[in-house]
Design goal:
Blueprint: E1 2-8, H1 11-18, E2 26-33, H2 40-51, E3 60-66, H3 75-89, E4 96-103, E5 106-114, E6 116-117, E7 122-123, H4 129-144, H5 150-153, H6 165-174, H7 178-190, H8 195-204, E8 207-211, E9 217-221, E10 226-228, H9 229-233, H10 237-244, H11 253-321, H12 326-335, H13 337-407, H14 415-435
Antiparallel strand pairs: 1-3, 2-4, 3-5, 4-5, 6-7, 8-9, 9-10
């Protein structure tokens, strides 16, 4: 299970993200604990109000728990992981909010703690959280027998396709996959050994090498988006300079954008529009199936909740009827019958809670399997679209490269002198011809 956490502010924004039902197919508030408010927005606003009595700005600690994609992880595992995290980070007893998200056949959890210790009215200091979370994550993979990511086994083999939220948003603006962007740039770097070969590989993938204002070496794609090579390649600046030379020798980003726009914008926009239209047409049935499935799954969960609430109320009434009242109730307390009945009711109530939770888990797991089968088809179609887009970019890059070669002067010829000599000989021949014909009145050339 991958654990990613950070200190942050913005309680309202965080609450809206946790309850976002547009980007997530299912949102379930699992727990609001330690707050006076009973809803997520009210709880995080309460945490913000409490922080105003201190000098703490980042008054929350947010954590995401992402289990392996192909594993079925129970609620108990999530809760046990949270207990470990709280103990490791010093957040035991702090108010928290737990929300589960489901998207594309995967379920993950988000947890937000208030960092404000109300007894001392100061923020809890969380030291080295990344190292501590990595330790917990490794132990979870080992305990449950999950396939451990290579990055945990060997840091040098850490997944290079991890991307930040800013990189994700940058890719979303152009409709591209951020993983594909980073993978393409890293592939170009891996198979090149000089600036010339690197530029050639970049252009075949629709990227152009340029000089950034602050980031040194950057790549500009056909959309005009700028990517920091040191960040995308995870390579230091001195290593980039060793292979590519000085960044000062490269064209600036505005110059590169202008050149890219003139070369491929018209062709690319037209061809991309046709490709996107075809992709949208092929994707439409699957998207419709996804919407229908999401609506059906939500309806089934709502019906199960209503059934469980009605059954719980009925069983609660039956348990309450076992407790006799009045003089008989007093007598039952004296002879111990009341306490035995109460203990039995508590056990039955807890077993009923576990039964309802298991029923809901069984339904969710069944729906996740159905959703993953549909997601496999969606991913296959998206991968094919990415391949077609990549081939299109390469074809357009070859066309523009060929156009450059056609207009490039030959290195062994001075075309200016050649044109001047050809024009002079042509004029001389006409003048000689006109001298042989006296009937033609020759006008001076202007």
């Amino acid at each position: 299970m991958i654990l990613k956490g950070n200190q942050r502010a913005g309680g309202r924004q965080m609450a809206l993200h946790l309850l976002n039902g547009d980007q997530n197919e299912h949102v379930a508030v699992h727990q609001v604990q330690g707050f006076i408010a009973e809803d997520v927005l009210g709880a995080l606003n309460e945490a913000y109000a409490l922080s105003k009595a201190t000098q703490c700005r980042q008054f929350m600690y947010s954590l995401s728990l992402n289990p392996p994609q192909d594993e079925r992880v129970s609620i108990e595992v999530f809760e046990d992981t949270l207990a470990r995290v709280e103990k490791k980070l010093g957040l035991e007893g702090q108010p928290r909010v737990v929300v589960f998200h489901e998207k594309e056949g995967r379920r993950h959890a988000h947890v937000v703690w208030s960092r404000i210790n109300i007894d001392e009215m100061k923020a809890i200091n969380i030291s080295h959280p990344k190292l501590k979370l990595n330790d917990i994550s490794k132990s979870l993979y080992l305990e449950h027998g999950w396939k451990m990511p290579y990055g945990f086994k060997d840091k040098s083999r850490r997944n290079p396709l991890n991307y930040t939220r800013a990189e994700w948003q940058q890719a979303m603006r152009t409709g591209q996959n951020p993983k594909a962007i980073k993978a393409a740039l890293q592939e170009c770097w891996a198979i090149s050994d000089s600036r010339k070969s690197f530029e050639s590989e970049l252009q075949e993938n629709g990227y152009y090498l340029a000089r950034g204002d602050r980031r040194g070496f950057v790549a500009v794609d056909v959309y005009g988006e700028v990517y920091s090579l040191s960040r995308q390649l995870a390579v230091k600046k001195k290593d980039l300079e060793q292979r590519l030379g000085k960044a000062e020798n490269l064209p600036s980003v505005p110059e590169t954008k202008g050149a890219v726009f003139r070369q491929v914008s018209k062709l690319f926009n037209r061809y991309t529009g046709e490709l996107n239209a075809q992709h949208k047409q092929k994707m439409q049935p699957l998207l419709h199936a996804k919407q229908t499935m999401t609506a059906q799954h939500r309806s089934m969960r709502t019906k199960l909740d209503e059934f469980q609430k009605a059954r719980w109320q009925k069983e609660e009434n039956q348990r309450a009827a076992k407790i006799r009242r009045g003089f008989k109730g007093i007598w039952d307390k004296l002879n111990g019958r009341y306490w035995k009945t109460r203990e039995k009711n508590e056990k039955e109530s807890y077993n009923a809670y576990l039964r309802d939770q298991q029923q809901r888990e069984d339904l969710i797991n069944k729906q996740l399997t159905e959703r993953q089968n549909l997601q496999t088809q969606l991913n296959l179609l998206r991968n094919n679209h990415e391949k077609e887009r990549k081939h299109l970019i390469r074809d357009l890059s070859k066309i523009t490269s060929a156009q450059k070669d056609n207009v490039k002067p030959h290195p062994e010829k001075d075309l200016t002198k050649e044109r001047y000599a050809t024009r002079s000989s042509h004029i001389q021949r006409n003048q000689n011809k006109d001298r042989c014909n006296p009937d033609i009145d020759i006008e001076p050339e202007v």
